[in-house]
Every structure is written in structure tokens, then in C-alpha cells.
Specification:
Length: 313
């Protein structure tokens, strides 16, 4: 039999309450030629029992005996995939009907594009949802790298559709990262080709109390290993490093979380990110903030080519 058109990789850990909803959204897709690879990352709840009830022949299940984190689980799925294209789904999210159809169409007609990202609908803790829209933009490889480094395009793992060959060449996801592992993966992927963003809402991002995005107090702790993985923030594009550091410090001040503020100041000092002083930190923050705002529109992104010439100093 020929391989399916797409391998969907769904890592899960103790999500027995939301996993059935995620799987149901895959089985309801308009595009039916897929394999769904579910990687149970050492769950201790009823996940294993539920997975044994699944009878659809397109579903494959792998299990890690220990909880190793979503990056390791996704990498297991990447290794097992048989399709030429990969898509990802977090176990508390839901696909919309065209989630595979539209990205697969883009990749079929754009051979120089290695990855697509799509828009979503996000749920907040009050049960209200809002659209997180991306413009329709095609970026060259060089612009793709810069857009990821500068956080000009929002990234969620469930948004990513990528050619399998290049996901493997990029080395998969960095298992040392707890956050921004999806963005760091795309920075490495971008050297192989371009990005196409899709404005259509193709998945729904559910809110969960134990979601990592709600652990804002640990953002500074998790930024340091990301900077180690991407030394550009400590070297060539230090202004970007200052911007992300100052965002976290301001967030702690707004939350009146003085212990986290003090802890992150110590971390950032040790990493050499505060050596230039607070005034330089704030000037860089404002410059990067203005730059990001000026490049938020579809027209500005479409002309993106390279970093500002003086940002390497």
C-alpha cells in the first residue's frame, strides 16, 4: 500500500479527559488519507486503557515507559512517520475540518516551501474564544529564520505542517527545552526552505489550568536554555535578547511577583544579559518593540528579507 499523505503526531501525557476530543477531531477531517501516531508519554491516568479501545486502522500507538516531555514524544512520532508530510496536534487542542487539506494543497503547489503555519481560535480561562489570525504570507528561507528569531509570526506546535524529510534533517525538537521548543525547531528547519502562513482558522486551542502557557512565573527560568540553544540572542542579535528579557521582568512587575523578579534578575545577570545596564536594556526593548509593530502587517512581512543592518552591533 502507498504511504498516507500525512502523518499526524499527537503526544499525550495524562490527558485522558481531553484526548478523546482531540482524536475525534482528527477522524472528522475532510482529508482522510492520514495516519495518526499517538505517543503516550508515560501516562499514569486512564490514557492507556482508552487507547486500547481505538479500532481505526489509521491510528498507531507508541508508548514511552517514562515521561520524557512533549519534544521527545514528538520525536518518537517523527521517527515512526511513513508519510511525506507531518502535522502536529497537542492532546488538549482540536483540529478543524480543513486542517490537513489546506496545508497539503500549499505544499503540493509550492515546492520551495518546507513548512506552513495556520491561524487558530484560542479559548481563555473564562470559556471565551478569540481568533489568533495569521496573514497570508510566503517567506523565503532567510526571512523565515529572521521572522522566527524576532517572533514576528506566532507559533504553536498544533499549527505546524512540515515536510518529513526536512523535519528529520533539522533534527526534530530539542528535548532540553520546556518552552519555545516549537520556535527553536522552526529556526533550524528554516535553512532548508521557505514558510507559508495560512489565514484560515484550522485548529482550536483549548485553555487548561495546567497548561505550560499559564506557568508565567517560570518564563525566565525557561528562557535561559532557549538562549543557549540559540546563541544569536547572546551574540549577533543581543537587542532581541534584551527585548525578551525585559518583557519577562516587566511581566513579573505587573503581576507583583517580587520573588520571581529577583530570581530572574539573578539568572539574567549570570547569563550576561544585564551587563549593559537597565537603560540599555530598556532602549533595546523599545527599539525592538517598534520594529515588531512596524512589521506586523501582511505587506511588511511580505517584504521581509533580513535583520536591520545595525542590529548585529
Amino acid at each position: 500500500m502507498p504511504p498516507p499523505r500525512c502523518s499526524i503526531i499527537l503526544p499525550t501525557f495524562n490527558r485522558a479527559t481531553t484526548l478523546p476530543r482531540a482524536i475525534a477531531s482528527v477522524l472528522a477531517l475532510a482529508e482522510s488519507d492520514f495516519e495518526l501516531i499517538i505517543v503516550d508519554d508515560g501516562s499514569t491516568d486512564q490514557t492507556s486503557a482508552f487507547l486500547k479501545t481505538l479500532a481505526d486502522p489509521r491510528i498507531r500507538v507508541a508508548r514511552s515507559e517514562q515521561n520524557r516531555g512533549p519534544s521527545a514524544a514528538r520525536n518518537i512520532g517523527i521517527d515512526l512517520a511513513t508519510a511525506p508530510v507531518l502535522a502536529f496536534l497537542d492532546s488538549d487542542d482540536r483540529y478543524c475540518a480543513q486542517r490537513l487539506s489546506l496545508p497539503l494543497a500549499v505544499l503540493a503547489r509550492e515546492p520551495d516551501v518546507v513548512c506552513t503555519l495556520c491561524s487558530s481560535r484560542r479559548e481563555d480561562k473564562h470559556g471565551q474564544s478569540r481568533a489568533a489570525a495569521l496573514p497570508a504570507v510566503k517567506l523565503t528561507s532567510r526571512a523565515f529564520v529572521w521572522a522566527m528569531l524576532c517572533d514576528l509570526v506566532a507559533v504553536e506546535s498544533t499549527s505546524i505542517t512540515v515536510r518529513t524529510e526536512y523535519a528529520r534533517k533539522a533534527g526534530g525538537f530539542d528535548t532540553t527545552l520546556r518552552r519555545t521548543e516549537d520556535r527553536e525547531f522552526l529556526i533550524r528547519l528554516a535553512r532548508f526552505g521557505g514558510l507559508q502562513t495560512i489565514p484560515d482558522i484550522l485548529f482550536e486551542k483549548a485553555w487548561s489550568l495546567d497548561g505550560l502557557s499559564n506557568e508565567w512565573a517560570g518564563a525566565g527560568r525557561d528562557l535561559i536554555p532557549y538562549f543557549r540553544a540559540r546563541p544569536e540572542y547572546l551574540g549577533a542579535y543581543r537587542k532581541l535578547g534584551h527585548y525578551f528579557v525585559s518583557k519577562i521582568l516587566v511581566m513579573h512587575i505587573r503581576h507583583r511577583d517580587l520573588p520571581s523578579l529577583a530570581a530572574d534578575i539573578r539568572r539574567f545577570q549570570k547569563a550576561g544579559l544585564l551587563d549593559a545596564g537597565l537603560m540599555r536594556l530598556w532602549r533595546d526593548h523599545l527599539e525592538v518593540k517598534r520594529y515588531r509593530r512596524s512589521h506586523a502587517s501582511a505587506d511588511a512581512l511580505a517584504t521581509l528579507n533580513a535583520p536591520p543592518t545595525d542590529w548585529g552591533r
